[in-house]
Specification:
2 domains, 538 residues, single chain, Membrane protein involved in the export of O-antigen and teichoic acid, mainly alpha, 21 helices
Length: 538
Amino acid sequence: MSTVTNTDGLSRGELQDKAIQGALWTLVHVAVSLPLAFAVNIVIARTLGVVDYGRLAYLGTVMVLVGTVVDLGVVSGVVQFGAKAHAAGRTAEVTRLLSASKGYRTVVGMPLIAVTVLVLVDVDPGLMAVAIAFGVVLPCLLGGAGEALAIESKTARDAQASMIVNLVAQVLVVIAATTVGTADSIWVVRLVAGGLGTLLFLVFVSRTYRRAMLRPRLRGFPRGFWKFALPAGAASMVAAFVLSRSEVLVLTWMSEVHAAGVFALAIGLASHLFAPAQSLVGPLVPAISGLREVDVDAVGRALGRTLRASSTVMAAIVAAAMPAFALLVPLIYGEEFSDVPEVLLALGIAGGLLVIAEPIKAFVAARLKGMWLLWLNLTTLVVSVGLMVLLIPPLGVWGAVISNLSSALVLVTLLIVTEVRAVGTGTWRALGDIAPYFLGVLACLVAWWGTGRFGLPSVPSAVLAGVVGLGLVVGAMRLTRRGLTPQDAEAVQRSLPGRVRRVLRGPLRLMTTARDDEERSRKRGTTPVDAVPGVGAP
């Protein structure tokens, strides 16, 4: 075992506990914020209509892409190098890193983002001034707390602050939508809420690290930082274009404004449905990085558990929630969005693949393989852009859908083929770990098609589709013996508070359909590998 014993840093058990606490609080954040975001999205869509809803998505996507391009991988590098140093107890190294990061943001990032937004976005000058002040200047001067909290594995605190900021932001958005009622005003209100929210995140950062964040320096990045950060940053730029609703940009630039609105609503709804599963991934990233630092032998088992958990949760969401929700879209959003349901199903399948891909990418980042991430995302970008250019002119929104789904398949395939070999898991074993998701996709399509044949009203059809989809995927997982192992379920139950454990005992038992590692080892005639709790195996 290549485990590092370290009395000043974080042990494997502490990393596990912090990751689990972060995941639980992130789930609470999602449980509180998701219904509110869903309701607010209905107000926005019905107020703006298809075309202006697409414009709002365009404005938001521009900010995401510009911020990612200017970042140059600094955030990713700070989290990776900082999490390793903090786990090993090297506090002074972390403070230098945070100060250098703030220096880069203030001197380089802030002016570049401001100028780019001025060039790409056409809004009223008064609104633009507010957007620059709260969406660019304030986050650059006082931001960075998210990285500091990730370094300290305080993802629970990060989730708590995010929940409060989101609640305030949604209230302000509703006020803007119901009073002013324009895409530009809603965009600016979101930036104001996010900018002011940076102040709250600072409260949860430890005093030493907070002091470092407020003292920017132009130097202080450790050796090897830019060697990782620049390729990782380039990979993030490419990934942002492929994954951050870039199809909305292309559709808008090609004057397919109605298609842009349909695509924006469909992919936004898919992201809402996947938020619970996605929330489990974020807290794992610093924990995986720290785990590689203190116990590299546990990484392979951690990957297997993460894949099983994410694919099983996604299978249930895709099989039950996706067909049910698609049937309700015209009723909820109005007939103007009647083209959305089929697009939602297709983008939901692609989105589920991307959720499964995120844990694998976290393991790649923990090995500091920034160049590999770059080539991976470049390959995906070539597929995405090529298909958009070829297919959007003749097919409209469906050209964008095919591009999105194809790029997701390419991304997941490349990640699985390469990363699982790097950690010694084996390609076939990894494919078995994610098999529940593909069973969920099949159940989703069968439930959608079958329920639609009855011609029932929207609500009964949605209920029936959800029940049928969930029943089909659970039955398929039990038949194929895929899903969570008993070891997985035991580890999750041990990590949960008593009340939560009682609530989730039934769903966990329902999804515990795979053989455990010991049984599989006996069938192979080999000695079972010792398990690692929490992040790895129990």
